[in-house]
Amino acid sequence: MRILKALLITALLCADPACSPRDFLTRRLAGDLISASDTFKVPQIFLLKTGIVSNKDFNSPDSLVLERQGWIIGTQQKCPAGVDPPPCWDVVLSPHGVDAFRSLISESTHGGTQIPIKVARRELVDITGISKAGNFADVEFLWHWVAMNEVGSALYDSGVRYRSTVGFRNFDDGWRLQGEPLRNNQSLDEALRNSQPAP
Question: Which of 31, 117, 135, 147 is in the most buried spot, having the most CB atoms within 10 Å?
């Protein structure tokens, strides 16, 4: 009896290292791999356009939000060569806009007419399904934007959820998120670009 017990314990201890947590694609592992990926962690960049802009740019949804917030002011101007369609607008930050954007603009971007500003980051909401076929799997997940500042709050509604699907592949060291398309799967970057609002 003691020998049998010792053999059983030895067998369990030898088999334990052979199985790692990455050997089984669970919702938790898929969520951890998606959330930790560099592609998923890239923040949303908004380009603040000032100076002379086309009518199309001035009336874009983002510009209308900034104008509604009282952060930008546009005065109608004659279009310079190569800027269409007329009329053009000279866009400047209002005093309220200067207060809102001052801390968001890095020293290296002062003086430009297009200023990149980090406004939101992605947050994984849920893994909604995993479809496995041998060493390949498709993982469907929900995510949403989380504002990083006041500008992000105005531009992105955190209540809107997006549904994406991404491919995974099982290697000898466990499951990995696919960086580039594989068979019918799509990369995480493609999945995020092709995501649809979820009901």
Answer: 117
Walk me through the domains of the chain, giving residue ranges and CATH numbers.
Answer: 21-43+120-197 (3.10.450), 51-111 (no CATH)
* CA gap 141, 34 in Å, rounded: 9
Do 185 and 157 contact (CB within 8 A), yes or no? no
Q: How confident is the model at residue 189 (pLDDT cuts 50, 70, 90)?
A: confident
Q: Rounded to an integer, what distance in angstroms lies between the CA atom of residue 77 and that of residue 54?
A: 10
Phi, psi of 162, deg, nearest 5: -120, 145
pLDDT in tens, 36-73: 999 999 999 999 999 999 999 999 999 999 999 999 99
Query: What distance in Å separates the CA atoms of residue 90 and residue 103, rounded to the nearest whole number?
Result: 23
pTM, two decimals, is 0.75
Contacts of 126 (CB under 8 A, 6+ apart): 141, 142
* 58 Cα distance to chain centroid: 25
Q: Give the pLDDT of residue 18.
A: 47
How many C-beta atoms surround the C-beta of residue 189 within 10 A?
17
